[in-house]
Amino acid sequence: MFDEGARAEIVALVDRALRTGELTLGSCTLDFEALVQNRLQVAHAVAVASGTAALEIALRAAGVEGREVIVPANTFYATAAAVVHAGGRVRFADVAADTFALSGETVAAAMTPHVAGVVHVHIGGFVSPEVPAIAEWCRSQGVFFLEDAARAHGSSLAGRPAGTFGDAGAFSIYPTKVITSGEGGMLVTDDAALAQEARLYRDQGKAGFLGGEHVRLGYAWRMSELHAAVGAVQWRRLDDFLRVRRRVAASYDQGLADFELVRPLGPPPNSEGNYYKYPVRLPATVDRDALKDELRERHGVSLSGEVYARALHQEPVFADVDHVPLPVAEEICADHVCLPVHSDMTEAEATRVIEAFRAVVSRMAAPGRGRTSVSAPRA
Q1: Are the beta carbons of 74 and 102 closer than 8 angstroms?
Q2: CATH for 4-236?
Q3: Is 68 helix (H, G, I), strand (E, B) or coil?
Q4: pTM
Q5: d(CA 148, CA 162)
Q6: Where in the chain is the domain with CATH 3.90.1150.10?
Q7: Which residues pair with 46 in a beta bridge?
Q8: What average pLDDT does this structure show over 247-269?
Q9: CATH for 239-364?
Q10: Integer Rg of the chain from CA
Q11: Count of Cβ atoms closer than 10 Å to residue 119 Cβ
Q12: Percent of the chain, pLDDT > 70?
């Protein structure tokens, strides 16, 4: 991900920051924000310290304190934690089996008069076809709609980029994401007032960078110039990364096309996923931990982390959160794996993964031991 040319660009930008003493909220940050703003065609892009910070800032600006926010049960801890830290109450919702994401039906099932917001997560880097309808419904109800686009850099639905369907979108730029700044996040929005709130919150709630009154209970959520330099260089290479990831996914698609024991989660029609993950649901007779162990130890193939291995309402920290039944989220969390995808992966590596995966699953999914195919249709 960091070839010689990219490293040289980063070193030059970092050197400029060190020579000028401009170490935070400077020209590198402005350049990075402009790159994101231009690609997504949004009015505002606000660089912050992490994707988690972007989520919490958006929720604080939306005024969710004391009210409920609907969150899918199968997402990363930070999605729900941001609600709590912003003073809201988490309301877990189930997801659709064919997208791993919220649907209009599951949002409606979790809805109460106390709901102030909905956080939609683009699982695996895919934009669900239900996102536009959910966004429109939220607008009609006066409910804040936030896209957790932490994993969705470069993804789109009907030509519209992830992060631009709702009132705001929050991207993570952590090392495991499609692009990285080392640590960092980006909040995008067309709402000028929300963007201004974000700039206040990221810098200790100050009215101005060089001084001014503290008008919000903000935090040190700034992105340093060093991180912005890395992020900007990576962002310029996003299309190159996407080409590689989509090529790897196409190889996986071909390699699993006639393999009826499993069903991959693919991008919906009229969409482009970034393949942050390549989730595959397993037969009931295949033990996930045993599968991962055998692939690693006998074939040298390490699978990437699930999305996610345990539903959030099953985490101890959220054990006391009341929720509607969440059967689909629980099932999905328990029965899938993610094949490895990275931005410099070779065709030979993808072939090796598929051959090993097919061999081990075929052996483990012995006939007569229960369900040996997945009923959920491919998106």
Answers
A1: no
A2: 3.40.640.10
A3: strand
A4: 0.94
A5: 9
A6: 239-364
A7: 187
A8: 96
A9: 3.90.1150.10
A10: 21
A11: 28
A12: 97
